[in-house]
C-alpha cells in the first residue's frame, strides 16, 4: 500500500480520536473532510468532490462509503479494510445509502457526530444528510474534533513539514534568477512549481499566488501573466508540499531601485514578523500573536493597509486551500503550544500609492521561541 506513515502512527491517531469520541459521549462520527480521512487512515484522493463518508465508531472500527472510482484508491492508499460503494445512477441519493449503512452498523437511535464544516460536504449534500438522519438518532456537530487533533504534529509529521520547507526554499532559489527586468511571470511560476516536483513534492492545496505591478497588491491567484518592468514589484506566496504537508512562504521581491515607500513598508513588515515570533510561544494565544502584528503596524501608521489576520496553522491539506485552522486574528483564544506548524505572513498593501510589501514564513513551535523552517533570511530581496 502507498502509506506515508507507519501503522503505529495511524493506530495512535485512531486512539486519540477514540478518546475524543468518548469524552463527547458519541457512538460514532461521520467524517467528510478529506484531511480527516488522510490523517486517520492515509486515504488519498480528490474524490471528496463527490459524496463520501468515513464512519468511525466509538470502538475504533471504520468503514468508508464512497464511489466505484475510489474503491481501488482507498485500498491502495489507506488502512481502511471495509469499503461500501454507492452507485452512480439517475436520482441517486447517497445520503440514503449512508443511513442504511448506519442502520447495518446498529447505530439506529445512537448519538452521532457529523463533520459539517468541510468542503467535503456541500450544503446540498448536507441538507440531504440531515433529511435522512433527523429521525434516525441524536445528531451533533463534530466539525472541530479531528481538525484540532491535527493541529499538534507528531515527530513523523514534523519530518514531512521540514521536507516541505526545504522544497519551499528550493522554489524561491529557482525563481530568483528569473526575477529581473523582462522576466516572465509564467517562467517564474513554472520554475517554482517545477523545483518542488523535481524534489519529490506534490501539488499544493491551492494555486501559488503571483502578481507584479499593480497585481502585486492581490492576495489571491488570478489568471493572466505579464513581464516585469525595470522598477517593479513581484508578490509571491507559495508552499513547499510533501505528502500533502505544506510549508508556506511569502515575499515581495523588487527589481531595480527601492522606492522610499517600499523600504518603509519592508521595515514595518520585518519588525511585525519579529514581534510575532516573540509572541508565538506557549503562554500566549493565537490572538496575542495577531495583536503583536497589529501593534507593530499601528506604530508604523499602517493599520489601514494591513489585513485582519496574519497567519494560520499548516499541515496536510487538500483543495481548495492549504490554510488550516486556527488562524491568527483578534481575540482568538486558542493557546500556542509546542509542535504546531504555523505560517505567519505580514501583508501590507498600500492602494493609495499602489505599493505592495509582504514577508512570511513557516515556523515550528517549541517550549520557547519558535523555530523558522526556512533557510532564507528576512532581508529585502532586490534583483
From TrEMBL:
One Pfam family this sequence matches: Creatinase_N
- InterPro entries in the cross-refs: Creatin/AminoP/Spt16_N, Creatinase/aminopeptidase-like, Creatinase_N, Pept_M24, Peptidase_M24B
Which residues are in the Peptidase M24 domain?
Answer: 160-366
CDD domains noted in UniProt: APP_MetAP
Q: Where is the Creatinase N-terminal domain?
A: 13-151
Q: Which PANTHER family match?
A: AMINOPEPTIDASE, XAA-PRO AMINOPEPTIDASE P-RELATED
By what name is this protein known?
Xaa-Pro dipeptidase
The protein's organism comes out as Mesorhizobium muleiense
Amino acid at each position: 500500500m502507498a502509506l506515508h506513515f507507519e501503522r503505529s502512527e495511524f493506530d495512535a491517531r485512531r486512539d486519540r480520536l477514540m478518546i475524543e469520541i468518548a469524552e463527547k459521549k458519541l457512538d460514532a462520527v461521520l467524517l467528510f473532510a478529506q484531511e480527516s480521512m488522510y490523517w486517520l487512515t492515509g486515504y488519498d484522493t480528490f474524490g471528496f468532490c463527490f459524496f463520501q463518508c468515513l464512519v468511525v465508531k466509538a470502538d475504533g472500527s471504520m468503514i468508508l462509503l464512497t464511489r466505484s472510482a475510489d474503491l481501488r484508491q482507498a485500498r491502495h492508499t489507506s488502512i481502511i479494510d471495509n469499503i461500501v460503494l454507492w452507485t452512480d445512477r439517475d436520482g441517486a441519493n447517497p445520503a440514503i445509502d449512508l443511513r442504511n449503512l448506519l442502520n447495518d452498523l446498529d447505530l439506529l437511535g445512537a448519538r452521532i457526530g457529523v463533520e459539517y464544516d468541510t468542503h467535503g460536504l456541500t450544503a446540498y449534500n448536507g441538507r440531504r444528510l440531515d433529511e435522512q438522519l433527523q429521525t434516525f438518532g441524536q445528531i451533533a456537530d463534530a466539525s472541530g474534533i479531528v481538525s484540532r487533533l491535527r493541529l499538534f504534529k507528531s515527530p513523523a509529521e514534523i519530518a514531512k513539514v521540514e521536507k516541505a520547507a526545504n522544497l519551499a526554499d528550493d522554489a524561491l532559489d529557482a525563481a530568483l534568477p528569473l526575477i529581473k527586468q523582462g522576466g516572465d511571470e509564467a517562467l517564474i511560476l513554472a520554475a517554482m512549481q517545477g523545483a518542488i516536483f523535481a524534489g519529490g513534492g506534490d501539488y499544493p492545496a491551492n494555486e501559488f499566488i503571483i502578481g507584479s505591478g499593480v497585481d502585486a497588491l492581490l492576495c489571491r491567484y488570478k489568471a493572466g501573466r505579464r513581464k516585469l518592468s525595470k522598477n517593479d514589484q513581484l508578490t509571491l506566496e507559495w508552499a513547499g508540499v510533501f505528502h500533502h504537508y505544506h510549508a508556506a512562504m511569502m515575499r515581495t521581491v523588487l527589481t531595480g531601485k527601492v522606492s522610499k515607500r517600499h523600504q518603509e513598508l519592508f521595515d514595518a513588515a520585518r519588525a511585525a514578523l519579529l514581534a510575532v515570533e516573540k509572541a508565538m510561544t506557549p503562554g500566549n494565544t493565537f490572538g496575542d500573536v495577531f495583536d503583536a502584528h497589529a501593534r507593530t503596524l499601528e506604530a508604523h501608521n499602517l493599520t489601514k493597509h494591513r489585513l485582519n489576520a496574519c497567519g494560520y496553522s499548516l499541515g496536510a491539506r487538500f483543495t481548495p486551500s492549504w490554510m488550516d485552522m486556527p488562524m491568527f486574528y483578534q481575540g482568538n483564544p486558542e493557546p500556542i503550544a509546542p509542535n504546531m506548524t504555523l505560517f505567519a505572513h505580514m501583508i501590507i498593501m498600500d492602494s493609495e500609492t499602489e505599493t505592495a510589501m509582504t514577508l512570511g514564513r513557516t515556523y515550528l513551535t517549541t517550549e520557547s521561541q519558535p523555530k523558522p523552517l526556512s533557510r532564507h533570511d528576512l532581508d529585502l530581496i532586490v534583483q
